Each structure stands twice: as structure tokens, then as C-alpha cells.
Amino acid sequence: MALVLPAISSQHAFAVADQWCRDAADPATGTSLACGVAVTAGAGAGADDPRQLLGTADLAQSRAKRAGSRTPFTSWGPQLA
Fold this sequence. Notes:
The chain is mainly alpha-helical. The protein contains two helices and two strands, in the order H-E-H-E. The protein has helices spanning 10-24, 50-67, and strands at 36-39, 73-76. Strand 1, helix 2 (50-67) and strand 2 (73-76) form a beta-alpha-beta unit. It is globular. The two termini are 17 Å apart.
């Protein structure tokens, strides 16, 4: 699932993702949600390309999954995708 939050700060986007992770967590069943946040503000060329944006968010989500994190990971710009 992807949620696009245009024209908000990276801090606000992270807070939204963090709340999603907390809301989805169920310690009784071990259910959790891995969230990735892609930040493109100031990222330069390619930052408006939807494939780059989703790729960057996917990278951040994969990092969160590998770490077993219930806290979102953030990737900055398309260069990390």
C-alpha cells in the first residue's frame, strides 16, 4: 500500500507512518507493519518520477522489514532507490 502526502514536511510524513505502524501492531498476535517513508524535497532531478518515488519508499520499507523495526525508516531522494 502506498500513501502519497504531497506538500508536507518530512517530520509530518514520518509521524503519519509511525502512527500507522503503531495502530497496526498487535502484540498479542505478533502482528506489525513495516513502513517506509520517501522524502523527495530537495532531492533534485527525478524526484517527481512516480517510479523513483515508489522505489525509494520500497527501499525504506525493506530496510524496516530487515531490521524487524516497528518504527518507519526514511529514504531521502531517488538516489537511494
